[in-house]
């Protein structure tokens, strides 16, 4: 089979869908179905406009928190904790046993640690002069799993 390799900076949804589908098929052949589902916990103002919240997904028994943002005006009031707890409850309802996320050192590592997350890895100089932390948390006690 002949082939070519092409590099681009164009964001191509069709190609992204193609590669994701191929990866999902391969993963399912090795690990079984992922039962992947998106998950969002949204914060809205009185007019229904979005203020922040969390996006992520559940798959292979894990909650992945992709984006989490709380507006500065709501920080320190328990809103972030409530959002995280809602996501974790939903993940457990979906059969998840653990959660993972990543955060930069200038973001919310201490907040996540207060919620029971622990660091399992880090990238130095990402971005340069800072570190990116990878964190996890067990969502069920050993007796429940």
Structure characterization notes:
With 145 residues, the chain is an alpha+beta fold. It has a single domain (35-138), classed as Gcn5-related N-acetyltransferase (GNAT) (Aminopeptidase), CATH 3.40.630. 28% of the residues lie in helices and 33% in strands. The protein contains 3 helices and 6 strands; from the N terminus they run αβββαβαββ. Strands 1-2-3-4-6-5 form a 6-stranded mixed β-sheet. A hairpin with a 6-residue loop joins β5 (118-124) and β6 (131-138). The longest helix has 19 residues, at 13-31. The radius of gyration is 18 Å and the shape is globular. The chain starts with 12 loop residues before the first helix and ends in a 7-residue tail after the last strand. The model has no long low-confidence stretch (mean pLDDT 95).
Give the structure's gist in a few sentences.
By secondary structure, the chain is an alpha+beta fold. It contains 3 helices and 6 strands; from the N terminus they run H-E-E-E-H-E-H-E-E.
Secondary structure layout:
Elements: H1 13-31, E1 37-44, E2 50-59, E3 62-69, H2 79-93, E4 98-104, H3 109-114, E5 118-124, E6 131-138
Parallel strand pairs: 3-4
Antiparallel strand pairs: 1-2, 2-3, 4-6, 5-6
Beta content: 25-35%
Number of helices: 3
The name of the CATH superfamily reads: Gcn5-related N-acetyltransferase (GNAT)
- Overall tally of domains: 1
On the 0 to 100 scale, the average pLDDT is: 95
CATH architecture: 3-Layer(aba) Sandwich
Instruction: Report the CATH C-level class.
Output: Alpha Beta
Following the backbone from N to C, one meets helices and strands in this order, namely HEEEHEHEE
> CATH topology, what is it called?
Aminopeptidase
Query: Helices and strands: which structural class?
Result: alpha+beta
Quaternary structure annotation: single chain
- Give the termini separation: 47 Å
Helix content: 25-40%
The tally of beta strands, per DSSP, is: 6
What is Rg? 18 Å
Low-confidence stretches: none
Major sheet description:
6 strands, mixed
Q: Describe the global form.
A: globular
The strand order across the widest sheet is 1-2-3-4-6-5
